């Protein structure tokens, strides 16, 4: 007697009705008629009952198969998928056991009956898979065998830039063997995503060089790269050159190609070749899709591991550079959580501030309170304006009071990290001691102001002198350049020389006055211009022809020859003044005094710039002519010699940064503005392969009496090392986020599937004790992995997202603590958990989920690190203004070298712990983050005599958080 068969026959109407009701809820059955919904289910159940009762004869199996095909073909006609159809048979397999739960024990089928029923259901689902995909069980077993072989041949790591042909050739050969093809070739796309290059060929150890194909071109490989489905080329012999671009397929008659497309991006193309002309059946195409998808996963994983290895090497080098740069610059690094106002300090805090990092107050207010009172309002206003605005950086220079109360002048720079809404959530920066530099620059600024004043005074006096001499009864001329061309001459000169202005201006002296040749004038002028020293002559005799065609007359002049320097007055030449001795001597003395003042100022300025390792420039804005010292020329990449105009110098600024520099200069030169210029930019690469340089420029624009900008003077400082350190920190943060994304998303889905599967298995009554234990071990391991992922996600949010969010609500804390302790008792019944609660309830505003997570982590720690025969105590009590939650355990104390960093991330317990209980070391870090998010504190004490106690202090309900 078979109880399953009798049960099915006796309850057939109920089973069909319940199946119809449950199947109608499925999306694939919407709109079907009742007859279409039930289809052949009644006859199918009769056939299954007959097989279970009388055995699987060929006639009964044929009847069952026919009914299954009729039902599946109906589902195919209405657009159902393979999953939809298998879900219906799964539903049928659940309904029968659910129905006999209400039956008498004597009527319930035994294990052998159940095995027969479930075997029929499973074979029906196998039939669904075969009809939908065309694959038999043997086909799928063969597919699994080749996939296992691909796993065995898969390279562990492929670093970018290395030769991949050796590791990939066995995989390509295996795919050709699986497809029963004459050969295969793998092409990989380059970094630009445009060219396909051969990576492995079954016929060559190393594919011939020089072949490639355009992914956007008309060739077969290009069409495969753009196609979502496999492409077939029925006649590969005799192809046009454009069609066979990149291919080495002379021995292949039929080609089958498919692209590698992991994560929605082209990785490459696999091309399989057959020696004879043949059609390619759908099953072969689907098999190739499976193999290529698996190959894509293998390559993606290997390349990721290669990039990880390379990234680790870069990170180590970056960390070393960052540490050395930080030590060399004596920086103090700070990390400010803008949501909680907590600030973490590191670096050279003791040397700069006089405080160790752990002695500094945890809130930003500590930093504000130690800013010099005269700078405090300005700095605080500036940094909050930057945070509330849209800019990504903030920088200020101010005075800070160290531990001894002494003033330290610091340069503080911060980078603002914002969320998707643009709100500032975190700020990371560095504080650098610039006291020595400021003192040097302050002296330089004073000297620069003196030089500017002297130069402006010289310009003014020279202009006044020119105006005066144009009106006075003296002879005045300016001879420009080494050819001594007359660039300026007043009427008095023309009268003395007996020439018109047209005969004088624009001509060399000896051309305008040919009769003075041989009188020593040329030698005198050359000497003045060469030596740069003025010459004063009293009653010098000169023979001139004062009238056209007249005889030479001997005249005596008291003359001054004053050299003009281009750096001072904008031209190179000689100023010639002829007048009475008294006026001439006064003019010469004034010119000598101005020249001496300017020369001394320039010398002081040069020494100050050398001390500060800065370069300088001085630009005449009306002409664009600039004076650049040697250091700034080297810094910007300008030619070491020769005149360089402003427009020419701007071409050495990196093209992307050029608009920024031009805007800063326009703002500084805007009439009515402050004239101050400050900008950071990159210098264009002077030679291929040479790293670009960052330059920080500061300057000032000087305006004339009419408000027009005349001169632009400034200094430049090479800040490349600081910029590299900032970029390394940004890349490190992005890489951490990328890794956590892999952990959180790529691991969470398979773990969820494992957990769901083990839960389903544990509900089966036919599991043996050994199998049940194995499933429980799998379930426990999966749950531990889920907890580790949760800890990693919480850790990432706490470190990068501004702390853990809490959803506070009115809560009776004692009841919550009692509930958590009871749950832990159920998971560890062999341990003694002691609970002490106050008589009166403790109500307040806390997040129940986070407090539960906090207490479970502390209890798990206490149970893990204490002997099994010792109790673990949980105590909750009220103190003035706070609630104390204590978790105590006995056993060995926490090591003294571990205790100071017990709440830091990635800190595990004592070495030698069982690997099954080991975690990623984030539990206590997350506990502290949850406590801080509630406005509380956490402490730990650990001695051999008293044991270990973690004390959490939470603000009371009436305390302001």
From TrEMBL:
<dbReference type="InterPro" id="IPR052162">
    <property type="entry name" value="Sensor_kinase/Photoreceptor"/>
</dbReference>
<dbReference type="GO" id="GO:0000155">
    <property type="term" value="F:phosphorelay sensor kinase activity"/>
</dbReference>
<dbReference type="InterPro" id="IPR003018">
    <property type="entry name" value="GAF"/>
</dbReference>
<dbReference type="InterPro" id="IPR003594">
    <property type="entry name" value="HATPase_dom"/>
</dbReference>
<dbReference type="InterPro" id="IPR005467">
    <property type="entry name" value="His_kinase_dom"/>
</dbReference>
<dbReference type="InterPro" id="IPR029016">
    <property type="entry name" value="GAF-like_dom_sf"/>
</dbReference>
<keyword id="KW-0597">Phosphoprotein</keyword>
<dbReference type="InterPro" id="IPR013655">
    <property type="entry name" value="PAS_fold_3"/>
</dbReference>
<feature type="domain" description="PAC">
    <location>
        <begin position="679"/>
        <end position="731"/>
    </location>
</feature>
<dbReference type="InterPro" id="IPR035965">
    <property type="entry name" value="PAS-like_dom_sf"/>
</dbReference>
<dbReference type="Pfam" id="PF00512">
    <property type="entry name" value="HisKA"/>
</dbReference>
<dbReference type="Pfam" id="PF08448">
    <property type="entry name" value="PAS_4"/>
</dbReference>
<keyword id="KW-0808">Transferase</keyword>
<dbReference type="Pfam" id="PF08447">
    <property type="entry name" value="PAS_3"/>
</dbReference>
<dbReference type="InterPro" id="IPR000014">
    <property type="entry name" value="PAS"/>
</dbReference>
<feature type="domain" description="PAS">
    <location>
        <begin position="318"/>
        <end position="390"/>
    </location>
</feature>
<dbReference type="InterPro" id="IPR004358">
    <property type="entry name" value="Sig_transdc_His_kin-like_C"/>
</dbReference>
<dbReference type="Pfam" id="PF02518">
    <property type="entry name" value="HATPase_c"/>
</dbReference>
<dbReference type="InterPro" id="IPR013656">
    <property type="entry name" value="PAS_4"/>
</dbReference>
<protein>
    <recommendedName>
        <fullName>histidine kinase</fullName>
        <ecNumber>2.7.13.3</ecNumber>
    </recommendedName>
</protein>
<dbReference type="InterPro" id="IPR003661">
    <property type="entry name" value="HisK_dim/P_dom"/>
</dbReference>
<dbReference type="InterPro" id="IPR036097">
    <property type="entry name" value="HisK_dim/P_sf"/>
</dbReference>
<feature type="domain" description="Histidine kinase">
    <location>
        <begin position="742"/>
        <end position="958"/>
    </location>
</feature>
<dbReference type="InterPro" id="IPR000700">
    <property type="entry name" value="PAS-assoc_C"/>
</dbReference>
<feature type="domain" description="PAC">
    <location>
        <begin position="394"/>
        <end position="446"/>
    </location>
</feature>
<dbReference type="InterPro" id="IPR001610">
    <property type="entry name" value="PAC"/>
</dbReference>
<keyword id="KW-0418">Kinase</keyword>
<dbReference type="InterPro" id="IPR036890">
    <property type="entry name" value="HATPase_C_sf"/>
</dbReference>
């Amino acid at each position: 007697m078979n109880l399953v068969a009798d049960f099915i026959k006796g309850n057939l109407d109920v089973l069909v009705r319940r199946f119809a009701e449950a199947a109608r809820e499925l999306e694939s059955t919407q709109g079907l008629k009742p007859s279409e919904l039930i289809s052949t289910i009644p006859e199918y159940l009769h056939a299954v009952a007959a097989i279970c009762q009388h055995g699987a004869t060929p006639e009964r199996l044929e009847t069952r198969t026919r009914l299954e095909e009729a039902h599946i073909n109906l589902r195919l006609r209405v657009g159902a998928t393979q999953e939809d159809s298998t879900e219906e048979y799964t539903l049928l397999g659940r309904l029968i056991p659910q129905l006999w739960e209400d039956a008498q024990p004597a009527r319930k089928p035994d294990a052998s009956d159940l095995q027969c029923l479930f075997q029929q259901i499973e074979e029906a689902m196998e039939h669904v898979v075969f009809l939908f995909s065309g694959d038999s069980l043997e086909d799928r077993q063969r597919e699994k065998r080749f996939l296992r072989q691909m796993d065995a041949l898969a390279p562990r790591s492929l670093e970018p830039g290395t030769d991949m042909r050796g590791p990939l050739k066995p995989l390509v050969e295996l795919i050709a063997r699986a497809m029963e093809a004459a050969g295969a070739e793998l092409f990989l796309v380059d970094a630009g995503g445009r060219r396909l290059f051969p990576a492995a060929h079954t016929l060559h150890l190393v594919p011939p060089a020089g072949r490639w194909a355009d992914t956007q071109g008309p060739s077969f490989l290009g069409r495969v790269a753009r196609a979502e489905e496999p492409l077939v080329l029925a006649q590969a012999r005799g192809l046009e050159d454009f069609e066979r671009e990149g291919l080495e397929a002379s021995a292949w008659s039929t080609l089958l190609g498919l692209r590698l497309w992991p994560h929605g991006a082209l990785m490459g193309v696999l091309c399989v070749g057959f020696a004879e002309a043949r059609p390619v059946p759908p099953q072969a195409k689907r098999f190739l899709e499976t193999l290529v998808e698996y190959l894509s996963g293998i390559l993606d994983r290997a390349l990721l591991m290669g990039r990880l290895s390379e990234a680790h090497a870069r990170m180590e080098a970056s960390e070393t550079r960052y540490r050395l740069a930080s030590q060399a610059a004596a920086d103090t690094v700070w990390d400010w959580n803008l949501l909680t106002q907590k600030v973490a300090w590191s670096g050279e805090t003791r040397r700069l501030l006089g405080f160790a990092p752990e002695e500094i107050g945890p809130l930003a207010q500590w930093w504000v309170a130690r800013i010099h009172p005269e700078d405090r309002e300005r700095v605080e206003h500036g940094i909050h304006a930057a945070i509330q605005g849209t800019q990504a950086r903030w920088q200020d220079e101010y005075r800070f009071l160290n531990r001894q109360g002494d003033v330290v002048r610091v340069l503080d720079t911060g980078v603002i990290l914002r969320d998707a809404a643009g709100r500032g959530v975190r700020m990371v920066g560095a504080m650098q001691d610039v006291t020595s530099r400021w003192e040097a620059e302050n002296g330089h600024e004073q000297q620069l102001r003196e030089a500017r004043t002297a130069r402006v005074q010289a310009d003014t006096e020279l202009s006044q002198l020119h105006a005066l001499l144009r009106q006075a009864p003296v002879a005045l001329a300016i001879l420009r350049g080494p050819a001594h061309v007359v660039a300026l001459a007043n009427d008095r000169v023309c009268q003395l020389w007996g020439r018109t202005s047209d005969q004088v201006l624009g001509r060399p002296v000896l051309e305008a006055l040919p009769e003075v040749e041989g009188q020593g004038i040329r030698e005198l002028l050359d000497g003045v211009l060469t030596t740069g020293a003025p010459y004063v002559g009293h009653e010098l005799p000169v023979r001139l022809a004062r009238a056209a065609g007249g005889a030479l007359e001997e005249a005596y002049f008291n003359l001054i020859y004053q050299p003009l320097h281009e750096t001072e007055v904008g031209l190179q030449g000689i100023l010639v003044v002829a007048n009475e001795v008294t006026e001439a001597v006064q003019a010469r003395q004034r010119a000598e005094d101005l020249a001496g003042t300017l020369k001394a100022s320039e010398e002081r300025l040069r020494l100050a710039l050398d001390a500060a390792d800065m370069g300088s420039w001085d630009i005449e804005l009306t002409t664009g002519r600039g004076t650049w010292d040697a250091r700034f020329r080297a810094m910007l990449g300008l030619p070491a010699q020769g005149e360089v105009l402003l427009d020419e110098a701007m071409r050495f600024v990196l093209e992307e940064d050029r608009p920024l520099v031009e805007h800063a200069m326009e703002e500084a030169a805007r009439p009515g503005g402050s004239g101050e210029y400050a900008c950071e930019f990159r210098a264009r690469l002077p030679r291929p392969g040479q790293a670009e340089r960052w330059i920080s420029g500061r300057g000032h624009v000087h305006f004339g009496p009419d408000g027009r900008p005349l001169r632009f003077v400034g200094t430049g400082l090479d800040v490349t090392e600081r910029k590299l350190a900032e970029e390394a920190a940004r890349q490190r943060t992005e890489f951490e986020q990328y890794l956590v994304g892999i952990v959180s998303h790529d691991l969470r889905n398979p773990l969820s599937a494992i957990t769901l599967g083990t839960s389903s298995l544990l509900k089966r009554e036919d599991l043996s004790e050994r199998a049940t234990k194995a499933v429980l071990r799998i379930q426990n391991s999966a749950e531990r992995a889920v907890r580790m992922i949760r800890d990693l996600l919480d850790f990432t949010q706490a470190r990068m997202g501004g702390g853990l969010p809490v959803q506070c609500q009115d809560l009776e804390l004692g009841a919550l603590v009692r509930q958590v302790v009871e749950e832990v008792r159920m998971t560890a019944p062999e341990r003694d958990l002691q609970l002490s609660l106050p008589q009166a309830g403790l109500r307040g505003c806390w997040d129940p989920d986070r407090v539960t997570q906090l207490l479970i982590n502390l209890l798990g720690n206490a149970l893990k690190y204490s002997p099994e025969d010792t109790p673990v105590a949980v105590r909750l009590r009220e103190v003035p203004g706070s609630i104390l939650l204590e978790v105590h355990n006995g056993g060995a104390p926490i090591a003294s070298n571990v205790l100071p960093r017990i709440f830091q991330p990635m800190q595990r317990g004592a070495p030698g712990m069982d690997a099954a209980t080991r975690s990623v070391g984030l539990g206590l870090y997350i506990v502290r983050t949850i406590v801080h998010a509630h406005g509380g504190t956490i402490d730990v004490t650990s001695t051999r005599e008293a044991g270990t106690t973690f004390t959490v202090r939470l603000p009371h309900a009436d305390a302001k958080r």
